[in-house]
TrEMBL record:
Gene Ontology cellular-component annotations: cytosol
Protein's pathway: Lipid metabolism; fatty acid biosynthesis
Name used for this protein in its record: 3-oxoacyl-[acyl-carrier-protein] synthase 2
The UniProt record lists the keyword Acetylation: no
Known function: Involved in the type II fatty acid elongation cycle. Catalyzes the elongation of a wide range of acyl-ACP by the addition of two carbons from malonyl-ACP to an acyl acceptor. Can efficiently catalyze the conversion of palmitoleoyl-ACP (cis-hexadec-9-enoyl-ACP) to cis-vaccenoyl-ACP (cis-octadec-11-enoyl-ACP), an essential step in the thermal regulation of fatty acid composition.
Source organism (scientific name): Microscilla marina ATCC 23134
Entry similarity comment: Belongs to the thiolase-like superfamily. Beta-ketoacyl-ACP synthases family.
Lineage per the UniProt record: Bacteria, Pseudomonadati, Bacteroidota, Cytophagia, Cytophagales
SUPFAM superfamilies: Thiolase-like
Pfam families: ketoacyl-synt, Ketoacyl-synt_C
Length: 417
């Protein structure tokens, strides 16, 4: 089958370390932590009292008040990130065929705050059902893609993937396949999440998944450090404009990178724990490499899932060594979650943006907060600790894994005309 080439022509991001792509990159290269005490609610009684929240964001600056009150915050983030990406791609909405533009988005949880608030209000009452008529549209995850499609009139495939923390990467793999198979010419793809709520923090605390380093939030996300004690929850959104190469060329688009491979696998092992030998991670990276038609030695940088959990970090490092062999020592590896926290279903979206920017700037962002080495990891692996590193970056592999054993990987390539 003659598959079409797929390129990235627009980027958008709304993150705990920057509300635009340029600010996000500044935060990444300078090793800025987005973690701080929670302001979304009073977290005094919670085991974890901090998170990586989006900062200095006023939804009224982006969405009409009447409209945004009918949406959950995760949908706000979706609209803002996608708007930046569409503007960045310089799409002329009057000239493109909107029947051939898809919106394929990812959200692991969706409108958690809206669900929590409505049920809480009902529980306080006398049992008489008084629910907001927009309760269901605010809550369901697919409305993030729906809002984007409605705003811009995009009439191609329109849906949301729900694959836990791998949701956004799942969405981008799907969009990649629709474009290269010739079903559409262009897609808005990425993900958004807004789960820093009482139920979100409380639920992950009950799972013992979150760091409890309340005395030093900014250093709590420390992937591959001996003293890592769980992930730090983040929120926000990221968007890519994925476009068929000839379509992009014909309209004179600026091209950031080419998307050349997408991998998919399952651990088939446990609800929340990764396979201890990294089996699913091994399979998904191999699948992405095979899909791209390249050898492992071509990869220069891996933006890892790297959540700062004891089991997850180790499993991924084991998988990398098994897939890449001796070449693993030539790679740069880094976890940008050390700065942004873990955006759950949106994680893959902002990490794809980070990966593409690493190619653009020929710079690998760091894994910050490394203090104590862990003898479980091969000390010859380059985790890009604490400081960004300039190097030649032609191919980047981006890993995203989710509860339930969902694994997705993307491979971006510096464009060759």
């Amino acid at each position: 089958m003659n598959l079409r080439r797929v390129v990235v022509t627009g980027l958008g991001s709304l993150t705990p370390i920057g509300n635009t792509v340029s600010d996000f990159w500044d935060g990444l290269k300078n090793g800025v932590s987005g973690a701080a005490p929670i302001t979304n609610f009073d977290a005094e009684k919670f085991k974890t009292q901090f998170a990586c929240e989006v900062k200095n964001f006023n939804v009224n600056d982006h969405i009409d008040r009447r409209e945004h009150r009918r949406m959950d915050k995760f949908a706000h983030y979706a609209l803002v990130a996608s708007e930046e990406a569409i503007k960045d791609a310089q799409l002329d909405l009057d000239k493109i065929n909107k029947d051939r533009v898809g919106v394929i988005w990812g959200a692991g949880i969706g409108g958690l705050k809206s669900f929590q608030d409505e049920v809480s209000e009902f529980a306080k009452g006398d049992g008489t059902p008084r629910f907001n008529p927009f309760f269901i549209p605010k809550m369901i995850a697919d409305l993030s893609a729906g809002h984007i499609s409605i705003k811009y009139g995009f009439r191609g495939p329109n849906y949301v993937t729900v694959s836990a923390c791998a949701s956004a990467t799942n969405a981008m793999v799907d969009a990649f396949n629709y474009i290269r198979l010739g079903r559409i010419d262009l897609a808005v793809s990425g993900g958004s999440e807004a789960a820093i709520t009482e139920s979100g923090i409380g639920g992950f605390n009950a799972l013992k998944a979150l760091s409890q380093r309340n005395d030093s939030p900014e250093t709590a996300s420390r992937p591959f450090d001996k003293d890592r004690d769980g992930f730090v929850m983040g929120e926000g959104g990221g968007a890519l404009i994925l476009e068929e190469y000839e379509h992009a060329k014909a309209r004179g688009a600026t091209i950031y990178a080419e998307l050349v491979g997408g991998g998919m696998s399952s651990d088939a092992y446990h609800l929340t724990a990764p396979h201890p030998e990294g089996l699913g991670a091994i399979n998904v990276m191999k699948d992405a490499l095979n899909d791209a038609g390249i050898a492992p030695e071509a990869i220069d940088y891996i933006n890892v899932h790297g959540t700062s959990t004891p089991l997850g970090d180790l499993s991924e490092a084991i998988a990398i060594q098994k897939v890449f062999g001796e070449h693993a020592y030539n790679l740069n590896i880094s976890s940008t979650k050390s700065m942004t926290g873990h955006l759950l279903g949106a994680a893959g979206a902002i990490e794809a943006v980070a990966s593409i920017l690493a190619i653009k700037h020929q710079t690998v962002p760091p894994t910050i907060n490394h203090v104590t080495g862990d003898e479980q990891f091969d000390q010859k692996l380059n985790f890009t600790f604490n400081k960004a590193q300039e190097r030649e970056v032609n191919y980047v592999l981006c890993n995203t894994f989710g509860f339930g054993g969902h694994n997705f990987s993307l491979i971006f390539k510096k464009l060759e005309m």
